[in-house]
Each structure stands twice: as C-alpha cells, then as structure tokens.
Amino acid sequence: MSLPPDDCTSLDEVRREIDAIDREIVALLARRAGYVDAAARFKTSEQHVAAPDRQAALLRARREWAAADGLDPDVIEDVYRRLVAYFIRRELERHRTGA
User: Fold this and answer.
1) pTM for the full model?
2) Contact status, residue 50 vs residue 96, Cβ threshold 8 Å
3) 57 near 47, Cβ under 8 Å?
4) Could you give the domains of the chain?
C-alpha cells in the first residue's frame, strides 16, 4: 500500500514507503540491465559500446528531467555517470567474452 508523503503519520511509515520505492528503483535498474545486455548484441566494437555521443545526450536529458522534477541536476548526473560506467563495464565484458 502506497501512502503519499503528506499522509504518513510516523517515521516508520515514511521509511517503509522509501524502502518500497527503493525496491522499485532496484527492480527498474535490473530491467534496464536487460536492455543494456540486448544492446550489446547489436554493437560491433568496444568504441561502439562506449558510445560517447550517446552518453553525452543521455546525461543532458537526465539533467533536464531532474531540473523539471525539482531535483539537483548535478546529483542526478553523478548518479547516471556511475550507472552508465557500470553498464559499460558490464557490456564490454559481454562484448569481449561473446556472452
């Protein structure tokens, strides 16, 4: 059951809702990983895996989304830089091993 923040009547309720959201975020990241794995099938080189132009466009868009949602674009960019770096490492490993 999901409570809006203003309807929470205790710190325990707030924490329970945050934990539920974080679980959804982790599940969405796992789902994203599946698409990263699928993308690796279409890439023919390590340079293609890194895709610096795509990374730059992705980061710009995430910054815009963050600002539109009232979040600090620098923080969101940092989060996505780390995520993208992780997924690139994962994709490069798959590319190198042919997995």
Assistant:
1) 0.85
2) no
3) no
4) 9-97 (1.20.59.10)
